[in-house]
Amino acid sequence: MNVIEVNKLRKEFKSYSSRSGLKGAFRDLFTRNYKVLRAVDDISLQIKEGEMVGYIGENGAGKSTTIKMLTGILTPTAGEVRVNGMDPHREREKFVRTIGVVFGQRSQLWWDIAVQESFRLLKKVYKVSDEDYNTHMKEVIETLEIEPLLDKPVRKLSLGQRMRCELAAALIHNPPLLFLDEPTIGLDVLVKMKIRAFLKEINKKYKTTILLTTHDLADIEALCDRVVLLDEGKIIYDGRLDELQKNWVEGKQVHFEFQELVEVSSLEELSKDFDVKWRPGERKNQWVATVEGDDDAVSRLMSQVMLKHAISDVKINQVSTEEIIRNIYEEGIIHG
Amino acid sequence: MFYLSIFFQYAAQYLKTRMTYRGDLVVEIFSDLLFQAVNLIFILVVFGHTALLAGWSREEIIFIYGFFLVPYAIFSAFFNIWDFNDRYIVKGEMDRVLTRPIHSLFQIIIERMELESLFGVITGLAIMFYAGSQLGLELSWYDPFVFILMVIGGAFIYAGIFICLASISFWSDSKTDIMPMMYNIGNYGRYPVDIYNNVIRFVLTWILPFAFVGVYPAAFFLGRTEWYTYAFLTPVMGVVFLSIAYFLWNAGVKRYRGAGN
């Protein structure tokens, strides 16, 4: 069953561009130049129950706008949205009972009151029974290790502490679908790891579907099998994360740092049996080989080179997801 | 029922927070009282120069002022959402409101309530009883019921107007300075409308019907039969204006653009 079903979804914002200067300002009073900006441009998307999907794109690519339409905050300009079998905007009050939302930049909790008071209010708002609350939230509180924070007011918490409480607050009604917009922004590695482990656990246990936007690709690598790449309001890639890596990585890079000066010609001579490209590295006497082929080829090349030249350092690099995605945005196309 | 229970939950939480800042609370109630005293002194000063104002005596005007304070207190306690644009639209708090399973307007009302303003009800009643005894008014058995009806009508009118103004923020994201002006115009309703010229009178009756918050309903208790029709229109106008506000709000939420982040 598809939890999220989006068909040709579009959102346009009308804004007016102001003319320059005082004279322009006067003219703006009477006639305005309107500009229609298409933040989300006819996207289609299906997400199945229990999937963890990473939704990535540059700033202004339309990530937040999509999430806001999926959560019922914004009305779409055109297209169809069904989430949990409902129209998010039209049936908003009924619909939001079935989702949990965390906006990393915005707090769901009441600033002045203790965390547990916030939880208590939300429990009433979502009509959660004492029984459900006690069994479910006890676990959440334990896993996120927020027990000692419960009697503190939110304004006294650190960002990492607050974020864990926000996550717990979004799960009070144990929703089958969770939207996370930048949940790890500004957090340290330890808290990030805690949050990732927690998300994995609820996904396994309750089959919670999770849609996640983030700038930290490590989050995506740790959590999501599937990524959706967005650029200028359009989906440019939708598929498995490892496929993306496979299609984009053109072999491995080996960095050699030699003890003495080495000519390119001698290196090329050595590696004429391999499909290899050499380029000078950033440091003195450093050469970078980009090798096409399997791991076997890499190790054979390395032994060949090292037999002939004394080296002081060697490093094998895999192209990181971040690099791949940067490449995609720079070149604007997916090949392979 | 659900909404009522949520209301009490929020109110309890509100009181708890306010109690922790007791000093603040006392200062606020005191400054409200001072503000009301200044208004009363103004009325006394005016009547130091004349005995009647378009046929209304000093005590009658004081009575109208006392009545006005009651619906105004209810409005201030629950519907005083003058900072809606800044707080909810510009800062994007509306996003959060819209992800919760309660009607958005109701959520904002219970988030922004200021229960200490209800103290104005007591002040208003005291002023009315004082002026009423000076005038020798008598209380009938139905008066308290009519009073409640009139107060609700008046509070609804005030609420309706301010909710309409807040709804404008959904269409125009620039800040408007219309709110302070509205508070000023609202004050005109405290005086008999026959002291104004016809245009202002028409505006105060049908466009921005603040006259229904003060002089018209108060005229009923003062036994001014010539105003009875208007007096009994108060609850009707209240329901009409609140309904308009409600529809305008719902239409506005559909147009909500969200704050960029």
From TrEMBL, chain A:
InterPro entries per the UniProt record, alphabetical: AAA+_ATPase, ABC_transporter-like_ATP-bd, ABC_transporter_ATP-binding, P-loop_NTPase
Domain ABC transporter, first and last residues per copy: 24-257
Swiss-Prot/TrEMBL keywords: ATP-binding, Nucleotide-binding, Transport
SUPFAM superfamilies: P-loop containing nucleoside triphosphate hydrolases
Positions of transmembrane segments: none
GO MF annotation list: ATP binding
Pfam entry (one): ABC_tran
PROSITE patterns in the record: ABC_TRANSPORTER_2
Keyword Plastid: no
Entry-linked PANTHER family: ABC TRANSPORTER ATP-BINDING PROTEIN (PTHR42711), ABC-TRANSPORT PROTEIN, ATP-BINDING COMPONENT (PTHR42711:SF1)
Entry protein name: ABC-2 type transport system ATP-binding protein
Organism the protein comes from: Evansella vedderi
TrEMBL record, chain B:
TM ranges: 25-49, 61-82, 115-133, 145-171, 199-221, 227-249
The keyword Ion transport belongs to this UniProt entry's keyword annotation: no
Any single Pfam family the record assigns to this protein: ABC2_membrane_6
Cleaved signal peptide residues: none
Keywords from the named record: Membrane, Transmembrane, Transmembrane helix
PANTHER family registered for this protein in UniProt: INTEGRAL MEMBRANE TRANSPORT PROTEIN, SLR0610 PROTEIN-RELATED
Name of the protein described by the UniProt record: ABC-2 type transport system permease protein
Origin organism lineage: Bacteria, Bacillati, Bacillota, Bacilli, Bacillales
